[in-house]
């Protein structure tokens, strides 16, 4: 579809949370009304109540905490990409870590499933993993080699949906382990982020093609080219009105795509800020993690 731009510029405020070397990467709203975020290069988990001061919880400095989500048990769960572990942190800061059954897994995306467990991607091993809140791990192989499964989200259809960055596809796994793949129309799309919309569709980013994609539960894919095809869209979240908000890692912007295909992009104030994860915050605004050391608050 042809990109369109409309709307008024958003207000963007940056809130420093770490030094530039620590690398804020992903973030989520916790059950305690705070933003929780990973510091991928610093080996730490951060917490910020909007309007307050950030606090940090230290992990193994080289573990590479990556994506973080709220679990069904009221704790925050995160992947440790470099350490082949899944971590859990309570809202009072108690950390528990669970090793995966083997090395070279590269866990990245993580999401709470409909079955009371956490589901995660293993980028290097080409598997989807499942971990119970007690730490029991099950792994499910994918039907394609070298696919690099990346982000994962729970769908409204009872399955988990995930992107296959190196296979140019989006996949679905149900709690029994059955996997279905949906190839994308664009070669080299390299999808990364994925999020569920209120209408049951899934929105995802195509970092390699400069597009945002939408897939329905029956596998119908629509692609929306961005005004800047070199923007390298990375993460996506969907608000209650069905708008997909996404980060443009190379474009130094955040963008919004309405359900009827209108695209608006908003520049970030600091050049080269490297936006990655994005989510709706506890204050109702959009928040994104800037790898250069801040969280940015976006209000349309």
From TrEMBL:
Keywords: Antibiotic resistance, Lyase, Magnesium, Metal-binding. GO terms for molecular function: carbon-oxygen lyase activity; magnesium ion binding. Its cofactor is Mg(2+). It comes from the Bacteria. Mg(2+) binds at residues 274, 291. Residues 1-25 are annotated as: Disordered. Belongs to the Vgb family. This is Virginiamycin B lyase. It comes from Streptomyces termitum.
């Amino acid at each position: 579809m042809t990109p369109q731009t409309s709307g008024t510029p958003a207000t963007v405020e940056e809130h420093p949370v770490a030094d530039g070397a620590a690398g804020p990467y992903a973030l989520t709203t916790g059950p305690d009304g705070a933003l929780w975020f990973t510091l991928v290069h610093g080996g730490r988990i951060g917490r910020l109540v909007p309007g307050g001061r950030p606090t940090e919880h230290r992990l193994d400095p080289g573990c590479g905490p990556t994506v973080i989500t709220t679990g069904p048990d009221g704790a925050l769960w995160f992947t440790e990409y470099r350490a082949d572990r899944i971590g859990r942190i309570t809202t009072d800061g108690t950390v528990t870590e669970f090793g995966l059954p083997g090395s070279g897994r590269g866990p990245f995306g993580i999401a709470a499933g409909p079955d009371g467990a956490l589901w995660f991607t293993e980028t290097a091993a080409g598997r989807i993993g499942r971990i119970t809140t007690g730490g029991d791990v099950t792994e499910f192989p994918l039907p394609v080699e070298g696919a690099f499964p990346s982000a994962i989200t729970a769908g409204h259809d009872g399955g988990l949906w995930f992107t296959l960055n190196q296979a140019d596809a989006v996949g679905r796994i149900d709690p029994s382990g059955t996997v279905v793949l949906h190839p994308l129309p664009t070669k080299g799309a390299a999808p990364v982020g994925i999020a569920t919309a209120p209408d049951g569709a899934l929105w995802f980013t195509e970092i390699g093609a400069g597009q945002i994609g939408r897939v329905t539960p029956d596998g119908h894919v629509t692609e929306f080219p961005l005004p800047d095809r070199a923007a390298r869209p990375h993460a996506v979240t969907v608000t209650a009105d069905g708008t997909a908000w996404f980060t443009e890692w190379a474009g130094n912007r955040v963008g919004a795509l309405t359900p009827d295909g209108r695209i608006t992009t908003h520049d970030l104030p600091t050049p080269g800020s490297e936006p990655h994860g994005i989510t709706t915050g506890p204050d109702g605004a959009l928040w994104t993690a800037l790898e250069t050391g801040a969280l940015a608050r976006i209000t349309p």
